[in-house]
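re: the backbone from monday

yeah here it is again, tokenized this time
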């Protein structure tokens, strides 16, 4: 079976060295290119694009019907129970922030999260609720310590209101056992929230079967990069006053009283991101029409291929042992470095000399990267001081290559051969450090 096609994979560019090459897209954990079909569906939709919920007319009606259809596709994509609703935000970060505020937790409440979370699923809890945030220990390979989770969940008992975890790590590709997380949360009558930003593009999601109470994900990571995020949550949470009130959330307002719109309407404030919803639903449909079995098989093959070969690159530093990728169900997300080359420079060499897109830095997972680099508190303080003074290159970091549906073994070969060449011969160009931007830029010879 052929996998769905994305656009942009045959894009050819001329490198600064004068060489023509195809762009190799290995930064999919940040943003995936859109599906061809998604772009077509969006283009068709725009022919009759009208005001949703804010107008009467043929185009407004067509738009309403198409959005209804799109909503049911997204619900199907998640296998969302009837007891649950969908809200749309700008991205996953905004969805988690919104969810955290909607819960209206008290000081005595406890939220359990982990130390491997993307900052979006960490800061949201520290800055939007009064609840006590408890962190579960994780191992250096990025996996969660379930014994510690059980212990902490039991310790906080009835005060535990929520367990919030990543569905797949943006740094190590680790996928926790979601059904196990659900059992632990529900044993204590707490909710389970999954940050599905990295899970959604790579594994079939089933909120009903997995016992997930709420989750968030983004269109730009599921082959529909058109600026929208999703929050799926229990309808009962819609009975509250909206966390972000405004246009559309009220039926009537006077000096003294507010008549809120019905619960299912009051939380989606302002004009909806209709093109985002249509594009996202189109990508969800493409993924559902393809075989998840085939998608997973293809991606696991890439993971195996990379894990078997990356350790052979000279001077490579891998932070997750290759065996973990070979023996566990991980998505294709590989953090690495080459000894003696700054991570930001390595990403820059890959970009400018080979046309390979990756990402460098701590990538919203600072504490795990710090652990990998064994940075003491004293060193950390010195680094923080330098960063505060504008030297962002003072930070430790990694380069991340992340795979998606469109990648091939050929892409991995190109990356491995580039890394080997760099490790053996160094950069072909001279680079200038741009400290305030955490990048290196090449200087023409
Ligand atoms: C696991 C995880 N959670 C949250 C986010 C934030 O997503 P967004 O950029 O859509 O806010 C990301 C982005 O990379 C992520 O990888």
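seq for it, each position gets an aa:
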């Amino acid at each position: 079976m052929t996998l769905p096609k994305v656009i942009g994979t045959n894009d050819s560019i001329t490198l600064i060295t004068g060489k023509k090459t195809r762009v190799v897209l290995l930064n999919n954990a940040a943003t995936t290119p859109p599906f061809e079909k998604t772009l077509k569906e969006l283009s068709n939709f725009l022919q009759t694009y009208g005001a949703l919920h804010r107008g009467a007319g043929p185009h407004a009606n067509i738009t309403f019907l198409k959005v209804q259809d799109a909503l049911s596709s997204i619900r199907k994509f998640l296998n969302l129970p009837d007891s649950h609703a969908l809200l749309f935000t700008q991205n996953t970060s905004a969805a988690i922030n919104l969810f955290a505020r909607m819960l209206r937790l008290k000081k005595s409440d406890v939220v359990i999260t982990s130390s491997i979370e993307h900052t979006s699923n960490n800061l949201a809890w520290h800055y939007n609720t009064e609840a006590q945030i408890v962190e579960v220990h994780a191992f250096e390979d990025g996996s969660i310590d379930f014994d510690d989770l059980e212990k902490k969940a039991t310790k906080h008992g009835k005060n535990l209101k929520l367990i919030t975890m990543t569905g797949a790590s943006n740094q190590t590709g680790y996928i926790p056992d979601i059904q196990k997380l659900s059992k632990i949360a529900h044993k204590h009558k707490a909710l389970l929230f999954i940050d599905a930003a990295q899970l959604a593009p790579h594994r079939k999601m089933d909120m009903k079967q997995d016992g997930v109470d709420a989750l968030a994900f983004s269109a730009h990571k599921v082959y529909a990069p058109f600026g929208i995020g999703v929050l799926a949550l229990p309808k009962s949470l819609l009975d509250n006053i909206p966390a972000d009130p405004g246009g559309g959330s009220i039926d009537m307002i006077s000096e003294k009283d507010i008549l809120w719109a019905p619960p299912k309407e009051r939380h989606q404030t302002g004009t909806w991101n209709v093109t985002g919803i249509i594009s996202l639903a189109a990508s969800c449909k493409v993924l559902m029409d393809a075989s998840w079995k085939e998608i997973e098989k293809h991606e696991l093959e890439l993971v195996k291929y990379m894990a078997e070969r990356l350790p052979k690159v000279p001077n490579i530093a891998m932070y997750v042992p290759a065996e973990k990728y070979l023996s566990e169900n991980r998505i294709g997300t590989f953090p690495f470095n080459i000894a003696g080359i700054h991570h930001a420079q390595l990403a820059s060499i890959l970009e400018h000399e080979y046309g390979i897109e990756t990402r460098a830095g701590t990538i919203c997972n600072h504490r795990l990267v710090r652990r990998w680099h064994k940075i003491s508190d004293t060193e950390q303080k010195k680094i923080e001081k330098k960063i505060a003074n504008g030297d962002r290159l003072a930070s430790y970091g990694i380069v991340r290559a992340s795979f998606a549906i469109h990648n091939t073994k050929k892409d991995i070969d190109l990356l491995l051969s580039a890394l080997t060449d760099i490790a053996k011969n160094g950069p072909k160009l001279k680079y200038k450090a741009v400290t305030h931007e955490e990048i290196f830029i090449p200087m023409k010879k």
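Residues 140 and 259 are 52 Å apart (CA to CA). The mean pLDDT is 96.
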